[in-house]
């Protein structure tokens, strides 16, 4: 059991999924976000409000940590200045504080949007070149390269998890390939923490879907073995799904809707507006 784990982004949707499982893996869990507080703390969990753009604040919460699970950031496309402070400067402060405090490993919530403009007809592995679809995706590229740099030059290990569509259940045709269940998210983070050595590693954050569009074999040493499969939801989803357009990047690129969202504009808002109008 680890002595101390730090979780950033604890007030977010996926951070909330991870809090209890992480608390069971360590003697002390420190969770942090920009929110004033989070509810239902575990007995060994302490919440510390912090702004990731401030190195001083991140240094305070990182003191004594064995590992950092970094989920704190804007989780959507946003204007450049917002992405710069939260997702890019915030990544630097996490890795720099980890280095200064001799933290062993950063487990990072990267995203498919770092490579979102690759065609879905390309069955890509973890060596595929960066091809971001948004400023949000570009920030994920930066953080992955930062992780590589801090491993090569400073010996800080990292596991960069390129998360696809993490929901309780898949809700559209794209998700039949891209779905990551909450259970498999926990299994992936657990594997990233418990693997004896990782160096700098990239792993696709997807479940064991029949239609999975990426190859995770190069990260098999992590021991991440997803157990859920979106195919069980296929009859319901395909009965309601409209035909896909082979000329539309949204249907044909790994990044899905983010392949067409204008730079700096919310992809989540665009998706919600379509749902309301349908």
From TrEMBL:
A single GO molecular function, which one?
oxidoreductase activity
Q: Give the matching Pfam families.
A: Epimerase
InterPro entries assigned: Epimerase_deHydtase, NAD(P)-bd_dom_sf
Q: Does the keyword DNA damage apply?
A: no
Start and end residues of each NAD-dependent epimerase/dehydratase domain: 5-164
Q: Does the keyword NAD apply?
A: yes
**What keyword terms does UniProt attach to this protein?**
NAD, Oxidoreductase
* Top-level taxon of origin: Bacteria
What Gene3D superfamilies is this protein classified in?
NAD(P)-binding Rossmann-like Domain
Per its UniProt record, what PANTHER family does this chain match? 4-EPIMERASE, PUTATIVE (AFU_ORTHOLOGUE AFUA_7G00360)-RELATED, NUCLEOSIDE-DIPHOSPHATE-SUGAR EPIMERASE
* Family according to the record: Belongs to the NAD(P)-dependent epimerase/dehydratase family.
What is this protein called in UniProt? Uronate dehydrogenase
Species of provenance: Loktanella atrilutea
């Amino acid at each position: 059991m680890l002595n101390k784990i730090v979780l950033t982004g604890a007030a977010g949707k996926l951070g909330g999924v991870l809090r209890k499982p992480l608390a069971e893996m360590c003697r002390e869990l420190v969770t942090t976000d920009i929110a004033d507080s989070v509810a239902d703390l575990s007995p060994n969990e302490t919440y510390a409000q912090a702004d990731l753009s401030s190195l001083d604040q991140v240094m305070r919460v990182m003191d004594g940590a064995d590992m950092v699970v970094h989920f704190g950031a804007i989780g959507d496309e946003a204007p450049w200045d917002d992405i710069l402070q939260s997702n890019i400067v915030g990544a630097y402060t996490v890795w720099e504080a980890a280095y200064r405090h001799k933290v062993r490993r950063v487990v990072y919530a990267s995203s498919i949007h770092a490579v979102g403009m690759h065609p879905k007809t390309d069955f890509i592995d973890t060596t595929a070149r960066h091809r971001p679809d948004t400023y949000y995706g570009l920030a994920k590229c930066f953080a992955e390269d930062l992780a590589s740099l801090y491993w090569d030059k400073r010996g800080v290990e990292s596991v960069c998890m390129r998360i696809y569509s993490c929901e309780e259940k898949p809700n559209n045709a794209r998700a039949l390939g891209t779905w990551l269940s909450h259970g498999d998210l926990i299994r992936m983070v657990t594997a990233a923490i418990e693997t004896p050595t990782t160096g700098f590693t990239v792993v696709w954050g997807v479940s064991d879907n029949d239609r999975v569009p990426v190859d995770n074999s190069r990260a098999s040493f992590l021991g991440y073995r997803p157990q859920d499969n979106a195919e069980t939801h296929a009859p319901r989803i395909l009965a309601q799904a409209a035909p896909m357009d082979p000329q539309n990047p949204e249907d044909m690129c790994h990044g899905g809707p983010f392949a067409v969202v204008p730079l700096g504009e919310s992809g989540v808002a665009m998706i919600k507006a379509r749902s309301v109008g349908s």
